[in-house]
Amino acid sequence: MKCFSFSNGEKKDEPKDNPVESLRRTSFPSFSQRSSNLRVFTVSELKSVTRNFSRSVMIGEGGFGCVYKGVIKSAEDPSTKIEVAVKQLGKRGMQGHKEWVTEVNVLGVVEHPNLVKLVGYCAEDDERGIQRLLIYEYMPNRSVEHHLSTWAETPLSWAMRLKVA
C-alpha cells in the first residue's frame, strides 16, 4: 500500500507560466474548464491601496496573515471605486502557498450570494520576499465568526445559525 509519495530530489519540469493556472490544471481538473474573472495586482498597487500595509488600515489577523482595508478602481467602470479587504500571506502564518493557490482556484470560479467575492490576487517577489495576497470585496458587517461567537455584542440566535448553515 502506498500512503505517501516521495521524491528522489529531482524536480519535474513545471510550466513557467502563471502559478495559479499551472496548479489549477494539475490539482483541480474540474475547475480548469471554468473561466476566472480575477484581476492580477502588483505589490506596488496593493502598497498604494493599503498605505504600505499600514497598521492604521489593518482590519484583522488570522492564520493566513494580516488583512487590510483599501479602495480600488472597478475593472468595469474605472470611475467607480470598490472597498476591498487585502489578505497578505504572513511569513509566519499557519497557512502557506498551497492554501493560497487553493483559495484562488476555488473562489476564483465559484460565485454565490453567501460567499465573499474574490476580486483578484497578487503573486510576485519583491524586496520583502515572496508576496502572496488575496483581494476580496470588503464585508462591512464583519465575519461570520464574529456573529457566531459568544463575545459578539448580539450573537446570532440558534434559529438564525441554522439558516446560515
Automatic annotation (TrEMBL):
SUPFAM superfamilies: Protein kinase-like (PK-like). Residues 9-24 have a biased composition (Basic and acidic residues). The keyword Nucleotide-binding applies. ATP binds at residue 87. The keyword Nucleotide-binding applies. Keywords: ATP-binding, Cell membrane, Kinase, Membrane, Nucleotide-binding, Transferase. Its main location: membrane. It is found in: Cell membrane. This is non-specific serine/threonine protein kinase. It comes from Quercus rubra (Northern red oak).
